[in-house]
Amino acid sequence: MAVLKAFRAYRPAQGYADKVAALPYDVMNSDEARKAAFGNPYSFLHVDKAEIDLPKTVDIYDEKVYLKAKENLGKLISAEVLRQDETPCLYIYMQTWQGRTQTGLVGCTAVDDYQNAVIKKHEFTRADKEADRIRHVDTLDANTGPIFLTYRGETAVSAVLDAWKAAHTPIYDFTANEVRQTVWVVDDTAVVDKLIALFGAIPSLYIADGHHRAASAVRVAEKRRAEHPDYTGTEEFNFFLSVLFPAEELRILDYNRLLFDLNGLTEEALLAQLREADFAVEKAAHSPFAPTEKHMFGLYLDGEWYTLKANPESVEESDPVRRLDVSILQERVIAPIFGISDPRTDKRIDFVGGIRGLSELERRVDSGEAKAAFAMYPTSPEELMAIADAGLVMPPKSTWFEPKLLSGLFIHFLSK
Questions:
Q1: Are residues 187 and 296 in the same domain?
Q2: 387: in domain
Q3: Is 0.85 surpassed by the pTM of this model?
Q4: What's the domain count of the chain?
Q5: pLDDT of residue 126
Q6: pLDDT bracket for residue 345 (50, 70, 90)
């Protein structure tokens, strides 16, 4: 059963939340981060992407970057831009975007739960990305970016959160990146204990986003345990910063594909091969075309949109991975027709998150940069959880979650 722990967060003082909060470190490059943080000394990008405060000649994995991040975090605390709560609390983090609301509970989850698969994964991690965050967490002695977890919704949890929101004034309420960000502090011991008990009855948590951050937090905990063989399990380094959302409230956007060549095929030959691969192919009735159901795809080719629909009899619905639309497209189109067997490393394919819209696909094909684009129907949270429950791994670039969780609103230190 899931372990949830209250903690004494370092968080922005009143009047600073909208200045501190920043998008996660891994959704922008260094130049984009420099631009986003320009003129704002409080932006958490100075901590999460500290290379922006060093010469561009410094490698982003240089030791100087991690030391600069530690220095910048210390400055925010010394200036009391970030302050620590006096008692352990939980926090409600609500995001409202495009008429939808998702309400998460911020606390710490257990390293042991990750190791014992109470916290379930659906993605492989890359060693180089893990190494970066390990050094960041270890150097700063803190989790600075929350792990985005989900769970099958519990009405009892939602009732407690709704009652708290109704009875208390939020500590933060601002809009960033077109998303309304609202936060409440849950500082009543009885309510905190009730929430912890409710999560103690939830059998599984699922990583929605943040696999590298989670794996890195666990590796740092293992390092600290080795350094402190007399550890009791209650030390802060045995837990990592998380936000837990009910799956029913989450929104996963399409994660679309761009192909930079047709593998020697003409447009007519490509369409013929798609039909041979057991897809019904028709010109779309409108432009651009967004798939409206599972196993349906949009294809943008030579200024035209087409609809592709997989023959239902050809879909292995009993297999939680192979029935995914991203698997169907990869196994029946991208690999055999375009000759791209490893989409993680092949430079002839690119992935475009649905937040950019189908117009981005059209723009890049019309410009001649790409030759074709596939619009996807979004993966569902239930599909994600089914794969994690089976101990399997999703294909790369299967999910794009929006809105993104902001960093800097909650910091969890590992030794204080």
A1: no
A2: no
A3: yes
A4: 2
A5: 82
A6: confident
